[in-house]
Design goal:
The chain is of the alpha+beta class. The protein is built from 36 helices and 9 strands.
């Protein structure tokens, strides 16, 4: 017993020595690696996805993506080529049901296909970190659950929680281990229960106390383990404290920025928010604070005196337009800026408030669409007071809505005669003239309006429309819009209208500039992006046109114009097809890429791109395009078939089988997929399965009762015969080979296979006849000549055998 104990102690000592020699890394370093890995996923990766999701600035998002995998600062991925198992498609939930893409494409697809929102929508939970491991280098696996709250733009399937895993690799930089994400993928939670593969045994960072050095090895090992656990716990506490200090600094900068913003110290607020962003570059909070501070700074550039003056002018204008409630509000806002002026404007407030009370009942009836009831009320008050311009204006509006043109016009005239500054009466009368095809009178009224007030931008637009209606005078129409822009240089709708007129004039370059101005003033103006994209197309600047069309879609472009964008992509697609037909394949691929960039949601384009690369035998690139086609249409049978064929050509027969079976789930009559499965199983030497699938393919062809290429059927019969031959079912093999040569008398391989089957069954004369036929059609197969020679030798026809062996050697 004592001897056994001594052996055990010696083994423990040897293992301890061996372990210590395995990896020169300390407990403290290991804990630092694991903690930093957790933070990189939970904070940086999640923050990056949420920043992409909430940021609508195309350049900022593009820079952020580039920096994350290729930048010199803020890089969290090992490089731009790390592989990600795609979870953007909501139908992907495991490694067996996904696609592999590089990190750059993953992040750009996330930006393109995942619906953006104002709030972070990517959630990570249930974080677990593996032990430090080593294969070719140190690595750690971080396990977590991931959930996308927002929907996918192209797939109606709702997202569910996915089990994800990030593999972390490390670089030692300035004596510190820095983690980088080297792979993102799915995982099965049960796989992590006993996850001990490749675990690193690391050296301790401390010697044992003196009193334990003489203890037996088991006691010493237990003591060492206890010390290591304490070192590990202390290291983690230190890391948590360092992170707490950084978090406190981050929160402090945000809070100080908020305080600076509250006192309108915009430079200081922006400086503090940017410092916070430097601490946590992928956290979406600092960027949202910066955007808000910029907006507040813009609002605050107007001084109190300017605000007071503006509010007074707007209040007076609202009074002229009979917007009495709004007028009272604006007078009060003016007084808030300069309380000392209250006494000067109190009477104005009282007058507009009283007018509002007098006509509010009738106006509410009018707004509710009760035009006849409102008309009766106006008739009653006009009987009592025929000097009130507002009453005649109100009644005119009711007549106008009821289609009584003459009565409406008479009351608008009366309202104007009673008050030549009644702007609403002038505008409404102009609108009435315009609707009743009296453009010159309408134009006169709009001009009259502008002599009193230049603030109504709609009037400039209406005048511009009338110029086009009267004599299609684009120059005059643009001049009217320029007058409006002289008054308000930030009037986005006038720039838009001017841009559309310049397009009519075929001045595309200036039209493009006007649409760009609209976008600067209103970055969410979908129609401006759409029209600028059309200008870019005119200049053949397809990439920028595509970016504008994508922005237009994201900003909520009307479906009518989305369909028009699709028509712009179609000529590019047709040009690509023409180039491909002419065997100018590089140009074809360039053009199909342009078509995809203009309309990225058409699966046919992605599929066709895959076919172009397939024709070049670039099967990996072809597969990526078929992946994209299936992401857009998961019932695209031809895409599954071609992807399966591409995998077959890459000798990945398992993936080929998976895709071809997907074809048959969607279309059980797809006989080429059955043939493809036969080919894949044959390549895997599963001859029984291959024979069955070839038979199924032929059965399907017969059931379809439609003309099928005899050469294709001959190939299937020949392949089926080879399957039977390989399981020594020579009778069925012979039947299949005979059918093959009946379908295609020039199929040399079928003659050889038939001859070889005769040879195996001892029918030498028939074997020689068929193999000779095969060699006469194709004389470049050494093994055909070899077996022909053997058959002739067995037949004792040595002269012929020598000739066949000679051909074989040659």
């Amino acid at each position: 017993m004592r001897k056994i104990r001594m052996i055990t102690v010696c083994l423990l000592i040897l293992l301890t020595v061996k372990s210590a020699a395995q990896d020169d890394i300390t407990v403290k370093e290991v804990e630092s690696i694991r903690y930093k890995s957790e933070i990189l996923v939970v904070r940086e990766l999640k923050g990056l996805l949420n920043n992409i999701n909430t940021n609508t600035d195309i350049k900022e998002v593009s820079d952020m993506i580039n920096n994350s995998h290729s930048g010199s600062r803020n890089r969290i991925f090992l490089n731009s080529k790390i592989i990600v198992e795609d979870d953007i498609n909501p139908n992907f939930h495991s490694a067996a049901n996904t696609r592999d893409i590089d990190i750059d494409k993953y992040l750009r697809d996330f930006d393109l296909l995942y619906k953006k929102g104002d709030m972070p929508s990517v959630v990570f939970n249930d974080i677990k970190i593996s032990n430090l491991k080593k294969k070719d280098a140190y690595y750690v696996n971080v396990y977590y659950t991931s959930f996308f709250r927002n929907p996918n733009k192209t797939n109606d399937t709702a997202y569910t929680i996915n089990n994800r895993m990030a593999e972390m690799r490390f670089k030692k930089e300035n004596n510190t281990w820095t983690p980088y994400i080297a792979r993102l993928g799915f995982f099965n939670p049960s796989d992590t229960i006993n996850d001990v593969l490749n675990n690193v045994t690391f050296k301790t960072t401390s010697d044992l106390p003196l009193q334990l050095q003489s203890a037996d090895s088991i006691t010493a090992a237990q003591a060492r383990k206890s010390i290591d656990e304490e070192i590990k716990e202390n290291a983690r506490r230190q890391l948590i404290e360092e992170d707490r200090v950084q978090t406190q600094a981050f929160s402090g900068l945000i809070n100080q920025g908020d305080a600076a913003l509250a006192r309108n110290d915009f430079p200081e607020a922006l400086k503090l928010y940017k410092e916070a962003r430097e601490l946590r570059p992928y956290d979406p909070l600092p960027q949202s604070k910066i955007s808000n501070a910029n907006r507040e700074r813009e609002r605050a550039t107007i001084s109190s005196d300017q605000l007071f003056s503006d509010f007074i002018k707007k209040a007076q204008l609202a009074e002229k337009k009979r917007e009495y409630e709004n007028s009272a509000i604006l007078y009060n806002k003016a007084i808030e800026q300069k309380p000392a002026e209250r006494s000067k404007y109190e009477q104005n407030i009282a007058i507009v408030t009283n007018k509002f009370r007098v006509i509010s009942e009738q106006e509410e009836k009018y707004k509710a669409g009760l035009y006849k009831e409102a008309l009766s009320s106006y008739n009653a008050v006009i009987k009592k007071d025929k000097t009130n311009s507002d009453y005649f204006l109100g009644r005119a509006k009711c007549y106008d809505k009821l289609g009584e043109y003459k009565k409406a016009l008479s009351d608008y005239n009366q309202a104007y005669e009673l008050d030549r500054f009644n702007l609403e009466a002038i505008e409404k009368r102009a609108d009435l003239y315009k609707r009743n095809n009296e453009p010159f009178k309408a134009l006169t009224d709009y001009k009259t309006y502008l002599t009193i007030s230049k603030e109504n931008l709609r009037v400039y637009e209406e005048m511009s429309d009338l110029r086009i209606k009267i004599n299609n005078n684009i120059e005059e129409a643009i001049r009217d819009l320029n007058d409006g822009l002289a008054f308000d240089p930030r009037a986005a709708q006038l720039y838009l209208k001017k841009g559309l007129l310049l397009v009519q004039k075929n001045d595309i370059r200036n039209a493009d500039l006007n649409f760009s101005t609209v976008i600067k003033l209103d970055s969410n103006h979908a129609f401006a992006y759409y029209n600028r994209g059309k200008c870019k197309l005119h200049f053949n600047n397809i990439p920028n046109a595509a970016l504008d069309f994508q922005s237009a879609r994201e900003k909520g472009l009307d479906s009518v114009y989305i369909k028009k964008i699709e028509t712009y992509a179609e000529p590019l697609f047709e040009r690509a097809a023409a180039k491909f037909s002419a065997n100018i394949k590089d140009s074809a691929i360039t053009l199909i890429d342009f078509a995809i960039s203009v309309n990225p949601y058409k699966s046919t384009y992605r599929f066709t791109r895959g076919n172009y690369y397939f024709s070049l035998k670039n099967y990996n690139e072809a597969i990526k395009s078929y992946d994209d086609a299936l992401n857009l249409d998961n019932k695209y049978t031809d895409a599954y078939y071609n992807r399966g064929t591409a995998y077959y050509n890459l000798n990945n027969y398992t993936a080929s089988i998976e895709n071809l079976k997907s074809v048959l789930k969607l279309n059980p009559q797809y006989f080429l997929a059955q043939k493809g499965l036969g080919d894949a199983y044959y390549a895997l030497q599963d001859y029984n399965s291959s024979g069955n699938y070839y038979a199924n393919s032929l059965q399907t062809i017969n059931s379809l009762k439609s003309a099928t290429d005899p050469a294709t059927m001959a190939e299937i019969f020949n392949s089926m015969g080879k399957s039977y031959f390989n399981v020594t079912d020579y009778e069925r093999a012979m039947t299949a080979f005979k059918s093959a040569v009946r379908k295609n008398p020039n199929l040399a391989e079928a003659y050889f296979n038939k001859g070889l089957t005769y040879y195996k069954t001892g029918a030498l004369s028939d074997a020689i006849a068929d193999m000779s036929k095969a060699v006469s059609i194709e004389n470049n197969h050494f093994h055909w000549n070899y077996y022909l020679a053997k058959a002739q030798q067995d037949k004792k026809d040595y002269t012929s055998a020598v000739a066949a062996y000679t051909r074989c050697i040659a």
